[in-house]
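Per your request, structure below.
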């Protein structure tokens, strides 16, 4: 179910990160007048000031892809989605498996308990210790990166401010930041605050013929809520880094103010949505049929985002997780 009738050339899909993450190209999109300008990400401080509050997602990617063997000797891939009980996880499975199928990876053992209505599976492991499970996993690179995970991904498929384990996909808009850039922004008077949203199946799901999207866990700290609400009273603009941060903040909206809370959100932001908290965002270039592009289109309008993507293709931008960046103001 594509919201954008655009095909991204395969050669533009970034397969590796830039060695200097801040050197990604930056497209600046003015959602008011439709103007598009160009720069590189390390100059992001030119476009932000003391009139902005920058909100970052401090989630940390876990090694969610576990390559196992079945008792029969066949291979099976277990992709962790969400812990639901002691030792029990909802997962995606690649390879043949059904209820009762047992699998293992060294000391880790598991069994498929059932297939769920949404296409995922519930499995039970022989341990309830999350660390004992994920230590056997690999970096969960998305399927459009056509290679196996390497050591470089352990560094670059993670933000420099990642703190809380829980994501099965990187909050890619934040991958371009370095500690130096964050320091430059703070020196300019930009207030930086954090939320947590664990990027889940919602972040990798391709929409078909329905609008059902998986829920994701989020946390909005009290301090973050207070700074944002005070800033909005003072007329400051709230700039969210990533679609997950947008989803988190808008899920915390109550009558135009952010409420400190934690829980799960099933909010699906698409064209027609009325934003109450954020004023702009930093984002990457996404798959045309992903939940992310629906959210970005809601902020800019479909015509403008289509124009931006056409320009990005014309200028041979790098796309998707390890690709280039966009600032929407």
């Amino acid at each position: 179910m594509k919201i954008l009738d655009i095909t991204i050339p395969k050669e533009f899909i970034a397969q590796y990160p830039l060695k200097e993450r801040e050197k990604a190209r930056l497209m600046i999109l003015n959602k008011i007048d439709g103007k598009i300008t160009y720069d590189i990400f390390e100059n992001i401080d030119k476009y932000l000031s003391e009139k902005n509050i920058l909100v970052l997602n401090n989630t940390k990617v876990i090694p969610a892809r576990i390559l196992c063997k079945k008792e029969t000797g066949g291979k099976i891939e277990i992709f962790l989605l969400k812990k639901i009980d002691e030792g029990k996880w909802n997962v995606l499975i690649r390879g043949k498996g059904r209820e009762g199928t047992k699998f293992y990876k060294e000391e880790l053992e598991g069994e498929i308990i059932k297939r769920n209505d949404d296409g995922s599976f519930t499995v039970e492991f022989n341990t309830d210790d999350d660390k004992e499970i994920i230590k056997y996993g690999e970096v969960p690179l998305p399927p459009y990166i056509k290679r196996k995970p390497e050591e470089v991904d352990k560094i670059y498929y993670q933000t420099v401010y990642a703190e809380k384990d829980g994501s099965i996909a990187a909050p890619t808009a934040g991958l371009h930041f370095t500690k130096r850039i964050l320091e430059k922004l703070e020196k300019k008077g930009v207030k930086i605050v954090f939320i947590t949203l664990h990027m889940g199946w919602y972040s990798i799901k391709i929409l078909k013929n329905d609008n059902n999207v998986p829920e994701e866990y989020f946390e909005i700290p009290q301090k973050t809520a207070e700074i944002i609400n005070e800033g909005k009273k003072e007329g400051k603009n709230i700039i969210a880094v990533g679609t997950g941060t947008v989803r988190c903040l808008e899920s915390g909206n109550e009558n135009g103010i952010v409420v400190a809370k934690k829980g799960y959100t099933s909010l699906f932001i698409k064209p027609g949505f009325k934003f109450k908290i954020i004023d702009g965002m930093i984002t990457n270039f996404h798959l045309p049929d992903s939940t992310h592009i629906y959210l970005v289109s809601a902020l800019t309008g479909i015509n403008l985002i289509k124009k931006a993507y056409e320009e990005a293709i014309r200028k041979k931008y790098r796309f998707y997780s390890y690709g280039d960046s966009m600032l929407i103001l």
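The chain has two domains: 10-61+150-328, 65-134.

Regards,
D.
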